Amino acid sequence: MKHKVIINHWEETCEDDSCYEYGTSIIVNGKELIREASIASALKAVLEEIGADAEIEETVESECCDSYKK
To answer: Which of 1, 11, 36, 52 has its CB 3.0 to 4.6 Å from that of 23, i.e. a possible disulfide?
Structure first.
C-alpha cells in the first residue's frame, strides 16, 4: 500500500494581532498525526501510523549543533 504523507507548514495570527504562531503538522492518509512536529517526532509519528517497526536514534555530528542537544 502506498501511503500519502503531507508535511504542512502553517502560521496563525490572532484576530487582534496580539499573537503569532507557526509550526509544521504531519498528515498521513488524511489523518493529522501531530501539529507541532520536530524532525524526530514527525518521523516517529509517520512510522507508527503506517505500522513500520523502527528504532529512531537522534545524534549530533559536531559541537556546531548544540541547540539540538537541548
So the answer is: 36
CA 5 to each of CA 26, 32, 43, 45, 50: distance values in angstroms, whole numbers, following the listed order: 7, 10, 11, 11, 10
* 26 in Cβ contact with 33 (< 8 Å): yes
45-62 per-position pLDDT tens digit: 999 999 999 999 888 777
- Give whole-number Cα distances, 23 to 9, 17, 28, in Å: 6, 17, 17
| DSSP type of residue 50 | T
Residue of 8, 9, 7 whose CA lies nearest to 22 = 9
Residue identified by cell 498521513 is 28
